[in-house]
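Appendix B, example 12.
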Amino acid sequence: MQITKTPPVEYYSEAEVAGILQISLERLHRLLDKHIFNDGTSRPHNLTFTNSELLLLQFWNRSEPNPKVLRMPRRY
């Protein structure tokens, strides 16, 4: 039996990144605008991302509270 390995993907599109992270394109754009394009420069169209950048985006996505989720106050 022959096992074939598919080469790893080098670059991901915005839509692929949003799908992998299970977020909307709008949320992806908000993350990019908040953490990368926050110095007055506009976000370029048709960005591509590497595996390392996916990891960073995933971290940022998990560290921000979701505005659609209501947090219950802590009980002391």
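Strands lie at 12-13, 48-49. The chain has a mean pLDDT of 86.
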